[in-house]
Amino acid sequence: MFILSVKALKLLAVALCVPVLALAQPTSAPIKVAMIESLSGPFGNTGEAVFRNLIWAMERVNARGGVRLGAAGGNRPLALERYDSKGQTEEALSALKSAIDDGAQFIMQGNSSATAAALIDAINKHNEREPGKRVLFLNYAAVDPILTNEKCSFWHFRFDAHADMRMTALMDVLKEDKALKSVYIIGQDYSFGHAVAREAKRQLALLRPDVQVVGEELHPMGRVKDFLPYAAKIKASGAQAVITGNFGNDLTLLVKAAKEVGFEGKFYTFYGNALGAPAAMGDAGIGKVVAVADWLPNVQNAQSEAFYQSFRQRFPNPADDYVHMRMQLMVESLVQAIEKAGTMNSIAVAAQLERARVTFSSQSGAMRASDHQFQQPLVVGLMDKQGSPGVKFDVEGSGYGFRVIKTIAAASAEQPTTCKMQRPVQ
After folding, report:
1. pLDDT tens digit string along 359-399?
2. Helix, strand or coil for residue 269?
């Protein structure tokens, strides 16, 4: 469990330029939040990266006094507990049971849509079976569209743009590349990878019917150690660009292999802006790696820059340079919902969370009540050398960063939903 001491709160106050005397110390029992994520195995680095974002967001809440529940409830700190799913859905379900037994009221997970789907089902059943121990599920990265469509749940809230939303943002850039005539689609062989491939083909047919899909492949998730055979296929296909939703080592190893075989095309990615991918590509990625995100460090305004620099002060190791605005907005939304509900009752908090509207460091977002899909602006970045116009900050000390080339307003990123939300009775 991670709760700041008074000394740590004072040090954090200095780092965040908050007057120490203005801090109201939490006075009541902590609100337990469980992070269920891969903390070991091939995607262990992604879980640790998420942890840094979440603990930093909660430190900020605790530094200002915690969650304010009024005279009756007092000020309560947030306490983050880590549960290692080891990249396995069965382990995640076991971790969910442990987290609930340990008193967690809020579950956070995101780095696998298959795991998220299983957690939604398990939480639905648990909350129906044990109404006195209901929990809410806050999802920061599982982006299979089905999770807020057919599988939507009153207990589940997604704070990342789903795959169709992200693909729409990428296509806003791709459709303007008139020289592009052929693409190769590659992804991880699970629900998210299938969703990305399906939507890429649908939007290409609609927006760029002149672009040919010259190859399509799904590979085992987290088990491929050598992507050279895949990269050789991509190069041999004559593709001018790759579209991929790969993340973590599956993306880093793919771009390394592409560089080794001499592939000179573009990469249109969901996650090419972090976790080793820019360093793996090097100069070969300049002007060729495109990434979509809810926010990028080189968004050019003073509040955004201050936000990023404060994260780097908290985590100065270049390898830890992985920060996501949506995770900050998620924690702020949760705090807002609890405080407005004035109670820890799960239904009351969920009712406030589904209408949350938050602004933090110039970024704003709002939860859509009909399907619990967060609506927020998206940005698309293009890889370039640090110091180039629009690239003040690099990624992970690599010397390469992402210049924002397209900003998509929340209203433009929004997609329809097929959700038929079932709301419980108190």
Report:
1. 999 999 999 999 999 999 999 999 999 999 999 999 999 99
2. strand
Cα-flanking dihedrals φ and ψ of residue 183, to 5°? -135, 155
Closest residue by Cα to residue 272 from 255, 295, 294:
255
CATH code: domain of residue 182: 3.40.50.2300
Task: Name the domain count of the chain.
Answer: 2
The Cα–Cα gap between 285 and 263 comes to 10
Residue 253 is part of which domain span?
A: 164-293+377-413
pLDDT for res 2: 54
Distance CA 121, CA 124 (A): 5
User: What is the DSSP secondary-structure string of 315-331?
Assistant: S-SGGG----HHHHHHH
| Strands of 257-399, DSSP E | 266-269, 289-293, 357-360, 363-368, 373-375, 378-385
pLDDT at 27: 62
Tokens of residue 49, six digits = 């990266």
Same domain, 120 and 209: no
pLDDT tens digits, one per residue of 8-33? 444 444 444 444 434 455 568 999 99
In a shared domain, residues 149 and 18? yes
CB half-sphere exposure, 93, CA atoms < 13 A = 14
Residues 6+ apart with CB under 8 A from 136: 105, 106, 107, 155, 156, 157, 346, 349, 350, 353
Band of residue 7 on the pLDDT scale cut at 50, 70, 90: very low
In 77-186, where does DSSP find H-type helix?
Answer: 89-101, 113-129, 163-174
Predicted TM-score (pTM) of this structure:
0.89
Order of strands across the sheet that contains 357-360: 78-84, 31-37, 106-109, 136-139, 156-158, 373-375, 363-368, 357-360
Radius of gyration of the chain, Cα coordinates, nearest whole angstrom: 21
Same domain as 184, residue 146: no
Measured distance CA(117)–CA(179) in Å, rounded:
39
Q: Name residues whose C-beta falls within 8 Å of residue 65's C-beta, 6 or more positions apart in sequence.
A: 23, 24, 25, 26, 75
Our CA angle for 294, 326, 311, nearest 5°, is 100
- pLDDT at residue number 388: 97
Q: Would the CA dihedral through 190, 191, 196, 199 be positive or negative?
A: positive
Order the strands of the 182-188 sheet from edge to edge.
212-219, 182-188, 241-244, 266-269, 289-293, 378-385, 400-408
Place of tokens 């121990």: 133
- Degrees to nearest 5, angle at CA 329 with 340 and 389: 150
Residue 104 contacts residue 135 (beta carbons within 8 Å)? yes
Pair (240, 92) in one structural domain? no
